[in-house]
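Sharing a chain and its predicted structure for anyone who wants a worked example. Both blocks are below, sequence first, tokens second.
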Amino acid sequence: MSQYQLIPYARIQEYFTEQLHIPISQGSIFNFNKVAYGLLEAFSEITKINLIASYRMNVDETGININGKRKWLHCASNDLWTDFFPHEKRG
């Protein structure tokens, strides 16, 4: 909910408490995201390997703001795999 739908931790906490009757702290939600991020590292590497090995790859970038600074969100994809990654430079 916090990553895909960009719902703030406080609203997720409220939802779990009021709708599901499961009290949960904002810290726990943060920790769940941190664990999930770590588990996705291997998947990220598999994605990159498959993109590099593909016959055709689509690439693009768009400007984003990270902590008040201009960065570039790069995207590489084919029919089966997609990788997004921020970078200091464009192109």
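Comments welcome. The two ends are 31 Å apart (CA to CA).
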